[in-house]
């Protein structure tokens, strides 16, 4: 919940004037009220606009909610689902997220599916079980063909907005576990082809080391994305 319309347009105009490496896919996820403006502003850009959330129903008496069709009507084809803040503050469950994923895929939207353990889980050695369950009950109902429209985003909740960051080794360990879990439940080819992003206090100073790990394919960037210089330094950490 950052940036009004003027601030969003200023940030996106700045990003749109930057040189983005051809090998790097960049997405931005403004708040609902700024999605249409962002979509129009970036119409001819390589930058993709994603929504931060979406309701699981097609339409109806769900005051304040936004459907897949509404997002598509303003040019949005990507949506973030299951972000740690949605899980924590709005009590989104794995079952609810499974419904959202189903609806998004039904509309041929591309899903950025977020998941990750809290500090107490890691302290008690439950991080792998928590992540496995979030994937199993929120995502593993989809068909093999659906995986072409899914991006995974691992968020260690204890490292979001705290200044703490999982070490590159911890990130790699979990991302490798995620690929093995996908391979066991689907296929090795799906496990290798899916992009797995890391989200947890990624900054210009640590991006290159985190992204340099074999199973880390990118980042889900929070606060550092609100400044064009900071965000582009992270984008350029891939080159």
What does the model show?
By secondary structure, the chain is α/β, with parallel strands linked by helices. The protein is 41% helix and 11% strand. The protein has eleven helices and seven strands. The protein has a seven-stranded parallel β-sheet with strand order 1-2-3-4-5-6-7. Helix 3 (68-73) links the parallel strand 2 and strand 3 (78-81). Helix 5 packs across helix 7 (127-138). The longest helix is centred in the last third of the chain and has 18 residues, at 168-185. It is globular.
Concise synopsis of the structure shown:
This protein is an alpha/beta fold.
Write out key terms for the chains shown.
alpha/beta, 11 helices
Overall body shape: globular
Number of strands: 7
Strand content: 5-15%
Total helical elements: 11
Strand order of the biggest β-sheet: 1-2-3-4-5-6-7
Task: Average the pLDDT over all residues and give the rounded result.
Answer: 96
How are the elements arranged and paired?
Elements: H1 5-16, E1 27-28, H2 35-41, E2 48-51, H3 68-73, E3 78-81, H4 84-89, H5 94-106, E4 110-115, H6 119-123, H7 127-138, E5 150-154, H8 168-185, H9 188-193, E6 196-198, H10 207-211, E7 218-219, H11 228-235
Parallel strand pairs: 1-2, 2-3, 3-4, 4-5, 5-6, 6-7
Helix pairs in contact: 5-7
